[in-house]
């Protein structure tokens, strides 16, 4: 069996999934579209996440 590689993106997606589920439970598990909980969770996770850039992007050299 191959071992699944986890990337930062998949880790963040798992955090969003967990947060969205928690938000949905806190709302009383209403029927309807889960997208609003996913969006809210993604916004919260992205605000908590450190920036992915280490600094300003360097200019490309001119030819």
What is the general shape? elongated
**Share in β-strands:** under 5%
Q: Would you report the number of β strands? A: 0
C-alpha end-to-end distance: 49 Å
Helix count from the secondary structure assignment: 2
List the defining traits of the structure above.
2 helices; mainly alpha; 63 residues
Describe this structure in words.
The chain contains 2 helices and no strands. With 63 residues, the protein is mostly helical. It is elongated. The protein is 52% helix and 0% strand. It has helices at residues 8-26, 35-48.
Element layout with pairings:
Elements: H1 8-26, H2 35-48
Helix pairs in contact: 1-2
Summarize the structure.
With 63 residues, the chain is mostly helical.
């Amino acid at each position: 069996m191959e071992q699944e590689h986890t990337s930062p993106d998949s880790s963040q997606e798992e955090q969003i999934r967990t947060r969205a589920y928690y938000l949905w439970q806190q709302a009383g598990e209403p029927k309807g579209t889960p997208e609003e909980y996913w969006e809210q969770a993604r916004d919260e996770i992205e605000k908590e996440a450190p920036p992915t850039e280490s600094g300003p992007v360097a200019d490309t050299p001119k030819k």
